[in-house]
């Protein structure tokens, strides 16, 4: 199937033989790597294998541009995108990237248009790595930071960022301008347009990020920048499905020290990052996200984890929940927010509330089957 897709595109080119040999070589590599992976897989092998999609698509794109009389240079981003060797979720070395980009990429940009890859990099020994989910947009922001770009443009399938997912609320409104903190909250809590990591380099270097539609470039979009004029109290609603609520009960919590430290020690040993948390005198409730920016997508509650926790306390697990986040400004200081929001939510079973830790969000867990109704009701009352 991969070979057919590549050669269908090649056969539409006026001069397919210019890159045919290179495409053939990459396809042969895929076959070899796939056979090796069938015998003994590893994260390093997987990264090497999946990198071929970026390499082939950019080669084809450069040739398409050239046939349309647009001079473009193909550049292997692995020459400059130096990362750690944490295969699958490699961390970029920002200082090394800046130095290498100045040496190898910047001179080319002064001469011609450069087409390069997202998502992939290389560690110190030259082995291919990947940056994980959202890695392509993250690459764009990292390169913009390294090259001191004036702006990052992210072209996706929707013309900007909306007050909520238009598939859930068809009358959702596009936000013309939003600040970094609001956008980061939206991305963290489930908005799919931007990955949270994309904003980190932009925030560090104060580089605006424009989000527009590749299907309709003239439709406008959303500008994400450092400050906006007159930010509203309520900005947007985000939804994250497939959430797990873990509730731990123990009388040992009462007037004692160290219980939470033990819990977090166990979670750390299993490489689990807690999302939201609330505590009482004898219990602690926390959420685990298998869909968000820091997740690998794997099942988090392994039998060994549950056994360790059960030796410490009584454990309850609820799955199939959804996290709804109201994003705004100064929410923790504004009067009447709770009444305005929870009055709407009265018909629904709210399993957990997190409010006050951030002035930019109010989060709550609801049963997954109610999630879209909750978002629709809140949007109707707060944004329409």
TrEMBL record:
InterPro entries: AceGlu_kinase-like_sf (IPR036393), ACT-like_dom_sf (IPR045865), ACT_Aspartokinase (IPR054352), ACT_dom (IPR002912), Asp/Glu/Uridylate_kinase (IPR001048), Asp_kin_monofn (IPR005260), Asp_kinase (IPR001341), LysC_ACT_2 (IPR047962). Gene3D superfamilies: 3.30.70.260, Acetylglutamate kinase-like (3.40.1160.10). One of its GO terms (cellular component) is cytosol. One of its GO terms (biological process) is threonine biosynthetic process. Its EC number is 2.7.2.4. It comes from the Bacteria. Keywords: Amino-acid biosynthesis, ATP-binding, Kinase, Lysine biosynthesis, Nucleotide-binding, Transferase. Belongs to the aspartokinase family. This is Aspartokinase. It comes from Salmonella typhimurium. The gene is lysC.
